[in-house]
Every structure is written in C-alpha cells, then in structure tokens.
Amino acid sequence: MSSETVERKQGRVKKFFPAGYGFLFCVDIPVDVFFHMNHWRSADEPVVGQQVTFSLGPSKFPGHADQAMMIRPVINAGLEALAKPIHDDAIEIGVNGGAA
Predict the structure, then answer these.
(1) Which of the residues 11, 13, 24, 91 has the least number of beta carbons within 10 Å of its own beta carbon?
(2) pLDDT confidence of 45, banded at 50, 70, 90?
(3) CA-CA-CA-CA dihedral for 42, 22, 17, 19, to nearest 10
C-alpha cells in the first residue's frame, strides 16, 4: 500500500453550484477554497455542510489561489454533520462551528 505524501486538509462544503463547482471552508485557510467536480471523488453530489478531506493544488488559472483536489467526503460523519447550521449571509461556516 503506498502512502500519500500530499498533506490532507479537512473542511466542509460551503457552497455548491449546479454548474459543477463550489467552495470549501477550512479553518486552516483564511479564504474559501474553490473546487471543481473533476476533483470530487464520490458518485454523490456535494451537499452544503458535508465534511470532506482534500489536498491543495495549483489553479489552472495563473494568479489564482490554490484549489481543492482529490476531495473525498467523510463517510462516517453521521447526521451531526448535516445538522450544523450553514448560513449564506455575513456569518460563515466555522465561525461558531464548535459551539454546542
């Protein structure tokens, strides 16, 4: 079994658009991370709030921030992953994410 040498990040799907792209939230990264469905590693479409792991790779557009690659949903996140509120206004995912 080969080991991945690429650092894996954890985050959540913040937005997903039917056009086949979206954005992830990750507490380690100060900006939302762009992703394209070409890098989504699941037969199911992304769901807002869904926990994922991913790697960062260069954007195909010069001057743009790195984008998410090899995105995999966290399988055993349970219903708790979908129960956390996601706001599409000034409050972003993760700001109050740890509060119970």
Answers:
(1) 91
(2) very high
(3) -80
3-state secondary structure the chain: CCCCCCCCEEEEEEEEECCCEEEEECCCCCCCEEEEHHHECCCCCCCCCCEEEEEEECCCCCCCCCEEEEEEECCCCCCHHHHCCCCCCCCCCCCCCCCC
Q: Which amino acid does the sequence have at 50?
A: Q
Range of the domain at 33: 9-83
Domains contained in the chain, number: 1
**Partners of 17 in beta bridges:** 21
- Residue 93 within any structural domain of the chain: no
pLDDT per residue as tens digits for the range 46-69? 999 999 999 999 998 899 999 999
pLDDT digits (tens, 9 = 90+) for 75-95: 875 555 555 555 544 334 444
Evaluate whether residue 98 is within a structural domain: no
The CATH number of residue 56's host domain is 2.40.50.140
